[in-house]
Amino acid sequence: MAKITIIRLLLSVYIPFQLLIMFWVYTMFNSFTYSPGYEMMKRIIIVHGISAIILLPALISLWLSFHYFLKHGYFNTKSRRFLKISGYILAVNTIITLILDLALCYIPGYSKWEQFPGELSSLVPVLLIGIGLLVVVDFMKQGESIEQENAELI
Questions:
Q1: CB under 8 Å to 101, separation ≥6 — which residues?
Q2: Residue 109, phi-psi category: left (phi > 0), alpha (psi -120 to 50), beta (remainder)
Q3: pTM of the prediction?
Q4: Domain regions of the chain by residue span
Q5: What is the tens place of the pLDDT at every residue in 77-99?
Q6: DSSP 8-state class, residue 108
Q7: 38-72 vs 2-31: helix axis angle to the nearest 10?
Q8: Which of 47, 107, 127, 137 has the most neighbouring CB atoms within 10 Å?
């Protein structure tokens, strides 16, 4: 349980940090003056802003899941539900960000293809974490049913 407490504490610090990043992106978006790369920079900020907005509910849901782990133990439906939501949001966030990054690669006059392998290498781990959370949910579901069977036997 100590590890879950540490992760929950880290999420408690990171979620407000994520909100500050979203505010910073918003102020950057509004403070641009026209320059040769103005339109492209605005598009890149929009893509990463959308990704940050989608990521925020996943982080909050993950925090809630760890909260219920500490409150009710490992095998409970609330933790499982919030982990499932978090896993789906992370997977969808990765796919949406990938689609938006691919769209940026096809904008005339700007080639993002040189940066795309780096973008892809940062998106794949997030997708794997999202799928991993869904696998953990399945394990929790099996553990919950085993725990109920054991309780019935006693």
A1: 47, 112, 116, 119, 123
A2: left
A3: 0.76
A4: 2-153
A5: 899 999 999 999 999 999 988 88
A6: T
A7: 160
A8: 137
